[in-house]
Amino acid sequence: MEKHILQPRFKDAQHFKDFWSKGNGKQLLEFSGAEVNFNNFEQFSPYYYHVDDLGDQVVKDIYLTKKFNEASREIETYIRNGISEHKDLPESVKNFFAQTQHIPDWLDYNLLKNGAELCMRSNLDSLISLRDYCLIGGYDYAYLNKPLIATEALKKGAVKRLSETLDFWVNVTRYDALEVHKKGYEFAIKTRLIHSYARLSIKKHYKNWDTENWGEPINSWDMMATYIGFSLVFMHSLHKLGNTFSAEEEKGLFHLWKYVGYLLGIPENLLPDDKKQATQYFYLWTSIQPPSDKDSVLLAHSLLNESLENPLLKYKFQRKNLRYLHICCTWFLLDDDVCKRLQIPEVSNRNVFPKTKWMINKVYDKLVSRDARIRKGNKDQMKVLNDYHNIIDNSNFH
């Protein structure tokens, strides 16, 4: 197998320098207190060509030897009930579930609870952060998007894609969700195998895959960056929207995503414990990513226009207004250079809604108890998820 040697090839590029000297990267450095350099680049860079062999082998042994629905039902049985009663299983399946059902020594259930509570307590700000900072900001990294393009995510449509992301995020961030056989654990395992299935499909069918530049499809280093999006970038977004969090909640959020990453097969040494470490890891990874390309712009606009396509709101003016609010939040949360590269439309009075939200959060934080906010946040997030489920179930979104 050909061995690729990776360099921090964009470290002198203008987009990289601007991001870390005056853009969102500069904000992350101030937010985290991290000091960054390239001393550890060679420790991380091999993971650009590293994949989840355990998950891939399960897909080869189960999904690629049976009908898809039959294979899915079989895996579902193992997820929910374990594998002890099943004899003559492929070795790959035994190894896979031995790893995912092994509780690592570092796991702290109280920290998981704190992390879940922060996600719920932040209510709809959590969903704004995921959509208007984490997801759309991720589209600025051209190579990171290549698996989405290769698997024709644009044809599937943003409503379906957003629904799947929301389904995953909500289900892994509830109380006790990540215990073995529970719903969050199930979502993590299924997502891991979807990644493996997609990777094997890309390698088989997408002949133009540029491994040297793009890395292996859905490689471990890109996975690390994606999950830093769910922890560091997500937390930074909440902070920008006027939310506060305790040291325990902050530690809990990173712990939660470290365990989700572990279940997803990301090597443990790529999973940061805190915002300082996450920023240092993210800095190294961004040095191998070029800025937005035409695919990035298509993905960003597909997400922006999701509000217009989504029948959640009955009237056209409501959908246009929702799109406007998401555009305002995107300009507020992402730096101007990223927004311009992604060709986010210019809109008038774009800071009014996010700054109003910031002020309301400051007041709400003082007036409403933490427990009441957790309960309300959980209820509101579940309602949004159920609304999306109803749309997908009762429509032609395939």
Automatic annotation (TrEMBL):
Any Pfam family the entry gives: MPAB_Lcp_cat
Coiled-coil positions: none
One term of GO molecular function: oxidoreductase activity
Name of the protein described by the UniProt record: ER-bound oxygenase mpaB/mpaB'/Rubber oxygenase catalytic domain-containing protein
Top-level taxon of the source organism: Bacteria
The species this protein was found in: Chryseobacterium arachidis
Domain ER-bound oxygenase mpaB/mpaB'/Rubber oxygenase catalytic: 154-349
InterPro entries from the UniProt entry: Lcp-like, MPAB/Lcp_cat_dom
